[in-house]
Amino acid sequence: MSDKIEQILTGLNNKANLKQDVYGHSLEVFNEFKACALNVVETLAPKILSNAQGVEISLNSFGDFEFHLKFSGDTIVFLLHTNVFAFPPKHAINKSTYVKENPNRGYFGMIQIYNFLSDSLKYNRLGDEGYLLARVFVNSENDFYVEGKRQLGFLYKEIGRQKLEKKHRHNIIEQCMLYCLDFDLFVPPTDALNQITVQQKNYFNNPSGIATGKRLGFEVVNTLKNETK
């Protein structure tokens, strides 16, 4: 058996096996997030119905790698990526003592959390945009790292300091919900809608037509301003 074949076998037995372990654990964590989200729904639903019967809160699964937490006009979409990732060599995680002691700790599963308008999903408006709220990275030892909005941008940045527990999952979900509630749908600037085509006009009578997003239209205008400077 050649040296290259032996190297391939070593890689399959070590790195490939490690990635399978990370993926398997990430799937477990994803299902635990789903259970926490269901608990949030069951906690809030009776209180919401007693005060505002027209407000809906629900949880829906879409296969093994996606579920939606809907609350009124907002839906938080949780997506588990099926691949395993490592951070770039110069990333702070790879410079940490925790990963330097054992490089296997530097491989992570990734859960992405997006905010969509509920109507975007209900009416299948394919041009509507979702906004990334957080990315949760978890390794085979259940250590985790979070990138995200507001407090999620700094609360869980030190890898190896704590395991991903139920209280952390709940806090991540609740922080995402609070951000969505504060992140309003703004009226687009007049210049963005100065002219429309007949086709766009017809789309107004079709729920799946004109693209809508909480900040859709503003980036286009700002880009044009930057280009004219």
Please give a structural write-up:
Helices cover 42% and strands 19% of the residues. The chain has seven helices and seven strands; from the N terminus they run αββββααβαββααα. Strands 1, 2, 3, 4, 5, 6 and 7 form a seven-stranded antiparallel beta sheet that branches. Strand 6 and strand 7 (144-148) form a beta hairpin. The radius of gyration is 22 Å and the shape is globular.
Write down how many β-strands occur, each being a DSSP E stretch of 2 or more residues. Answer: 7
Q: Give the integer mean of the pLDDT values.
A: 82
Strand content: 15-25%
Instruction: State the secondary-structure class.
Output: alpha+beta
Q: Order of helices and strands, N to C?
A: HEEEEHHEHEEHHH
Measured as a percent range, the helix fraction is: 40-55%
Detail the poorly predicted runs.
216-229
Spatial gap, N to C terminus? 64 Å
Radius of gyration: 22 Å
How can the largest sheet be summarized? 7 strands, antiparallel
Number of domains: 2
Helix count from the secondary structure assignment: 7
Shape: globular
Report the oligomer. single chain
